Amino acid sequence: MISRTVKVENSVGLHARPATYFIQKANSFMSSILIECNGGKVNAKSLLGVLSLGIGQNSEITLTATGVDEVEAVDGLVALIEAGFSE
After folding, report:
1. CATH of the domain at 19
2. Which of 7, 32, 44, 51 is the most exposed place for a label (fewest CB within 10 A)?
């Protein structure tokens, strides 16, 4: 298991289009991935779950992955977030 905390800095947070990019990236990994923010914790591969967290600009989230590609999963998702979801 590996966890990492990252700050979401893009202007719309993790809503609509950025959330879709995030989910697609999360689903490319075999590991189980959880995302935690504001006291809630959901499956990072679930669009409705991620959207339910209401992650806005400057929110800190914690990603936790467990599985064969857990390091790659967390690193890949953090890179996507830090790149502003390529927007």
Report:
1. 3.30.1340.10
2. 7
